[in-house]
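User: For my dataset I need records formatted as: sequence, then structure tokens, nothing else. Please produce one.
Assistant:
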Amino acid sequence: MTTDAQQYKLNRVLRVRDGWAVTVGIVIGAGILGTPGLIAGYLGDPWIILGLWAFGGVVAALSTLVLAEMAAALPEAGGKYVYARHAWGPTMGFVAGWSELIVSRGFSGASKAVLIATYILTLNGNRGSVPIVALAVVLGFFLLHTRGLRASTTFQNVTTAVKVLIVLAIAGAGIWGGDLAGFTAAPLITSSETVGLLGYALAYQSISFAYYGWEDAAKMAEEVKDPGVALPRILLGGALAVMVLYILMNVSFLAALTPAEMATSDLVAADAIASVFGGSAGTVVVVASLLILISSANVNFLGLPRVAYGLAQHGLAPRAFSRVDERGTPRNALIFISAWIGLLALTGSFEMLIRFMMTVAITVDTMVLLGYFRLRAKRPDLERPFRMPGHPWLPALTIVLYIMILVILVSTQPQLAAGAWTMLAAMLVAGVITVRGSSGSRGAASE
């Protein structure tokens, strides 16, 4: 057990390639494996499907540029929580940080653990319990990350390299072996019909979930070498790489399957390859998908303890979360995150988790990105190693896109939005109470 006298610090050991591995590692996973069938069912037309995937990539890239300026200027552990705290104060920092811990990353980590368990049982002839296997998966990640940052990032680098090769192989196989079925067949939704605003909203929630994590490397800013130069390269390079891979994957799916066939598939990647090369090839893709998910889930356990650590450093989470062990791991924060993800893995629908999670996440992200202009006005003398190109018009366009997306989500799904915003309101109240209590404690201590 690490005592206060034995408090260790986070070490700057991460390179640009480590950051790319983290970004690609967390982003490419449950989203691209679990949502293409949902999206095909919502949209129906192959060109609309590809267009919305490209639009999601553009939004992620623009968001990355805005965040890169703040990340390079404020290289502290915690990611978006840090920028919200500096721009809007500790209460909004509390909301940003805890929304990630409890909802955004907690839900996504749980969904990945459940999918990993499902694929393991699929390969095992469906013998066993998904919840029990999912908990075993969570325990395995916990034990890995107690080995320290170097062990977990080495694991991440290796699994990400394998993941990229697998994704390229799946994309290449589908494009090479397919007969362009998705592009030549009649669209699932014909030209005489319209997709509808709700269809676009549901599809975009799934696509934004698939891209979510483009900013995750910023959570480890205190452990990045030369962060002013490295962080913008990590964030933008990672986002662009993911967009290219996603478009290739979807072209591959549509080369082998029609939108109607995709809409009825639970694992589009396996079904697409099986339709071209047979059932054995589909099994190989299930194994490959399992490896992709393992790489992606690993980053949840890598990044989230750093968010909890950052919150604790400023009195917005239990002080125990700020304790780092001799291997550079925020051990207590890791225990909390693992327990929460394990609990969530026992419940919930994949699609509903995505929709709820992304409504919360897009709301919080809008607030965080607005902090860009707040910091420009509030701290003009802050050293900015990287500056957002196209200021002020390009960052303003980015924020307008977020507000438009949020308006569409709320107008088409008012009950879901009400539930998400109720949770955020509860976090806001908790943040006010926590900040006041923390300020009172500091005041009493100074008397």
